[in-house]
Amino acid sequence: MSAPASPVVASWELALRLKRRREQLGVEVRTITETLGFTRNYWSAVENERKILSLESLTRIVELFEFDDEEKAELLALRAAAKERGWWTRYSALFDNEIQRLYGLEQGARGVRDYENLLVPGLLQTPDYTRAIMMPDVTMRPVEVDQRVEARLRRQARLFDENDPFTFTAVISEATLRQQIGGPRVLRNQLTHLATLIERHPGKLDIRVIPFTATACGLFGGATVVLIDFDNPQLPTLAWQETVTTWGIIDDPTQVRNLTTTFEDAYRLALDARATLRMIHHHSKEID
């Protein structure tokens, strides 16, 4: 089994392989621009996933870069996949390009690891919990809230498909279980939903809580940190970091490595799966 096809992942892999090959062969950008009649800016856009080469141009690049027949077929297939439209493009009016890219990467990922310091991760939220997070935004119309909830539920689909190899690991603070987002009823239903997911999908979900008794953690004080892992060995792990005012994909290897190490430390500090489930049930029963 493999992850579903994703135009975003296909486009990224195509650009990555072309750039790596150019650097491996030591081909200067000027050689490419003179051979194919590109501007330097156009080729930069190709390597940075802002442009997808035409079939004719890609074929010429494949020859220039001396790819063999098998690699040529793979690259042409990637181009075709990159031209498709993902489900998230339906919501392009709601989400900026970076968030849409996150959804596309998530769709083609083998697994996602998520740290949240106060909120239940989006992939595990109930509709009411999601609405409660969004409603304080006075600039958001009700119809927009509905569409955002719909998009979030669409992202969750891979969790419930037992034929999909996707796995999700989340580390959350105990504060997440106590912060009454939306009020007691909404939080109680959210915790019940969370416990049910853990019990029904033990092979796909690994949820851990960092208890209040933990004395230190490198992610304390942070907001959202997500690590996105892929089956394809040619694709490195990427990170997503989000605060109130900033968000974006991180692909710098050093930063991703540091975030990965910090996440792994947080995972080790957290309760094990059984103790986490007991704590979720305990806090659910305590809610007035």
UniProtKB/TrEMBL annotation:
Alphabetized SUPFAM superfamilies for the sequence: lambda repressor-like DNA-binding domains
InterPro entries given in the database record: Cro/C1-type_HTH, DUF5753, Lambda_DNA-bd_dom_sf
Pfam annotation, one family: DUF5753
HTH cro/C1-type domain residues: 17-72
Domain of life: Bacteria
Annotated GO MF terms: DNA binding
Protein name (database record): Transcriptional regulator
